[in-house]
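Quick one: co-fold with zinc ion.
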Amino acid sequence: MSDAVPPDRAFVCTACDHRWYYTRQRCPACGAADADTYELGTGSVLATTTVHATPPGVRQPNPLAIVAFEHVSLVAQLADETIETGDAVTFGDEAVLRDGDEPIEGPRLVRSE
Ligand SMILES: [Zn+2]
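Sure, here it is.
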């Protein structure tokens, strides 16, 4: 497994087909060390919230969502506050998710076309 997996990809265990999102050294279901990745594609927004008191360098307000993709769910920043529960979303262009001495860049979720 690589540490540089793009954020629009999830993992699938080559031994047992279990799927997960966040980087792990081993399959959480069977413990195997080998996994492939696959593109998440389009997900469905399960819930949204907007954070108004954010850490330094994070935009304010900061709309977030829990999104269900096929087999995995994750929390991510939304492109804007117009995205609602039930909307179909996908990963958009790279943005500065947190600015500062060591900026964190990644895609925000955008409404799927
Ligand atoms: Zn497994």
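If it helps, Residues 20 and 89 are 19 Å apart (CA to CA).
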